[in-house]
Recover the amino acids of this structure.
C-alpha cells in the first residue's frame, strides 16, 4: 500500500492536491484526528488489495494535537508502515494575496493580520517540512501544473525535481514582478520597437529573435547569464530553495526580454536535475 501524507501551509493548495489525488485513484481523508493516525494506517493495511493507495490530509487545524504528530509518525515507522510526506508551500506574499482574494481569515490569525497567522503557522509546521519527502512550491504553479507534478510523483513514479525555475519576461514600464528572486535588465540591447516592420511583432516571432540575437552583445550576455544561473542552482538547492524566479526585463516586455527569456529557458530545460517553465507577463500589453 502507498500511504501519502499531504500537508503544508494553509492556502498553498492542500485541499486541491487531495482532490487531484482522489481523481488519481487514492482513497483520501482530510483532517483526521492525529491520535487516530496509527489506527487508520492499520485498518487501511488490513483491507489489503481493497485499498492500495491512501492520501491523508494533515494541517494546522489539528490544533494542540499537531505537536503529537511527530511521535505518531515515529511509532508508525517502527511498526513497519511506510509513508511519504508531500508538503505544499508558497511565499508569504502569495499566501496573503490568496487570503485577500477569497476574503477568508487565516486559521491562526484569531482576528489579527493574516501575515501574523502565516508566521505562526510556519513555526508550527516547520518539523513537517523538514521531514517532507517532496516540497512543492505553488507560488507560481497553475492548477494544471500542480496536477502534472503530483501525477509525476504519485502516478508515474518519475523522479521528483525539488527545484522549479521560472524564467519570466516583463516590461519595466509595468513594474518589476514582486516575486522575482533575480532580475536582469536587457534594455541595453538595440530595441526592435524602433524598427517599423518589427514594432507589432514579439519576441516569439523569428524576425524579432533574429534581430535581437543578431548582435554579439546579446550572445555574450546570454552566455554569462546562463553560466551564472548554472553556478547558482546547486547552491540554491543545497540551501533548501524549491522555487527560483528569474526576471528578464526590457522597456515594454514584448521584444528583447521575451527573446532572451526564451533563449535562457531553452538552455535550462535540458537539465534533468530541476524543473523549468517560462512565462511572458507583458507580451500581450
Amino acid at each position: 500500500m502507498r500511504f501519502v501524507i499531504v500537508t503544508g501551509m494553509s492556502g498553498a493548495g492542500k485541499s486541491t492536491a487531495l482532490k487531484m489525488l482522489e481523481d488519481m485513484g487514492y482513497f483520501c481523508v482530510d483532517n483526521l484526528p492525529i491520535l487516530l493516525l496509527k489506527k487508520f494506517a492499520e485498518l487501511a493495511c488490513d483491507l489489503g488489495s481493497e485499498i492500495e493507495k491512501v492520501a491523508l490530509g494533515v494541517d494546522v487545524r489539528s490544533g494542540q494535537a499537531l505537536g503529537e504528530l511527530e511521535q505518531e509518525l515515529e511509532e508508525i515507522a517502527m511498526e513497519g508502515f511506510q509513508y511519504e510526506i508531500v508538503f505544499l508551500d508558497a511565499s508569504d506574499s502569495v499566501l496573503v494575496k490568496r487570503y485577500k482574494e477569497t476574503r477568508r481569515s487565516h486559521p491562526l490569525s484569531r482576528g489579527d493580520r493574516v501575515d501574523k497567522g502565516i508566521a505562526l503557522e510556519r513555526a508550527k509546521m516547520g518539523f513537517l517540512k523538514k521531514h517532507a519527502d517532496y516540497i512543492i512550491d505553488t507560488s507560481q504553479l497553475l492548477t494544471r501544473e500542480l496536477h502534472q507534478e503530483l501525477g509525476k510523483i504519485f502516478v508515474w513514479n518519475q523522479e521528483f525535481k525539488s527545484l522549479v525555475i521560472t524564467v519570466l519576461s516583463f516590461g519595466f514600464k509595468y513594474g518589476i514582478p514582486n516575486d522575482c528572486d533575480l532580475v536582469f535588465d536587457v534594455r541595453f540591447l538595440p530595441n526592435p520597437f524602433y524598427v517599423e516592420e518589427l514594432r507589432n511583432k514579439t519576441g516569439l516571432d523569428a524576425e524579432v529573435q533574429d534581430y535581437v540575437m543578431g548582435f554579439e552583445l546579446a550572445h555574450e550576455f546570454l552566455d554569462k547569464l546562463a553560466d551564472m544561473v548554472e553556478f547558482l542552482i546547486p547552491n540554491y538547492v543545497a540551501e533548501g530553495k524549491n522555487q527560483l524566479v528569474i526576471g528578464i526585463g526590457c522597456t515594454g516586455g514584448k521584444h528583447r526580454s521575451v527573446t532572451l527569456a526564451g533563449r535562457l529557458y531553452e538552455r535550462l530545460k535540458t537539465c534533468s536535475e530541476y524543473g523549468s517553465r517560462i512565462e511572458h507577463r507583458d507580451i500581450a500589453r
User: Anything to note?
Assistant: Residues 164-280 form one domain. Residues 181 and 274 are 16 Å apart (CA to CA).
